[in-house]
Amino acid sequence: ESYGQPNGAIACGVNNTHVRSANSSQVNVIDGRDALPGEVPEYAAVTMEACLFGKFHCLNVFCGGSIWNNRTIITAAHCVDIGSMDDLFVKTFTVCIGVREKEGSEDRKICSKTTNYVKHRFYNRLTNVNDIAIIIFNYELRVPYFTKDGDGSTNKFCPPNENFFIPTKNSCFVVGFGIYDRSTKKMAQKLQIAPMKCVSNEECKKTYSGVTNSQICAKGPSGQTACNGDSGGPLLCLDADGRAHLVGIVSYGTRNCPENRLSVFTRISSYIDFINKNCN
């Protein structure tokens, strides 16, 4: 059932959480917590199956993604890239939206397949610069769509418009199914959300000297970090009205999930032209 207003009238970046409380679910070890039903309706889970010549040495890669519009998902280039033999692989993407649980269907996610994607032509595997890719559908996904209890809800992020100031307070968040226990390296089975604080590139260069203006750095105020499995997922920031703007894509810096470590994100505002040129 659709909830409230007609789906076409649902504004970008609005969530479908009826009880907004940070204490309403269990806190995990990397200081994220389970996302509430409908809290991040703009998140997409992306699984790529890539097979050499379409039939050999098949492998699966799991990443996060972000709903840009009802035909377009944004993720990281390294999520769709196999390496030096990339051009020889045939890839199929399974994109799940309305997702809150990694397995099963109790969250009422909807999964769709496509083979269409565009990787930034100047993506650099060594430096992770231009780490952005777009997964494209030639039909409309069910976006936006709100349900009565929140589960299965979908929406698109608001873009980071020119006037959008990235807040330095704790109103930015990273979302994903990444490892949530540093000691056991366990992957979360429920979608995780953790607060992040953006830092200046000058500050970031003390840790990652190669950071460019097309990247943005952030860390959790209490040791939270983006982690393995969160690759390609969103760094979102809320505006004064509580609407979520897509600010970054999880790129690198998180291999061993070290506490208080900066994470590096692809800066969406640097790629608006690339997105608009290639999105459906």
Automatic annotation (TrEMBL):
Q: Domain named Peptidase S1: which ranges? A: 29-280
Decide whether keyword Ribonucleoprotein is in the record: no
The Gene Ontology terms for molecular function here are: serine-type endopeptidase activity
Q: List the PROSITE patterns.
A: TRYPSIN_DOM, TRYPSIN_HIS, TRYPSIN_SER
Which keywords does this chain's UniProt record carry? Answer: Disulfide bond, Hydrolase, Protease, Serine protease
Keyword Nucleus tagged: no
Q: Which SUPFAM superfamilies match?
A: Trypsin-like serine proteases
Q: Which domain of life is it from?
A: Eukaryota
GO BP annotations of the record are:
proteolysis
Q: What is this protein called?
A: Peptidase S1 domain-containing protein
Please report the organism this UniProt entry assigns to the protein: Dinothrombium tinctorium
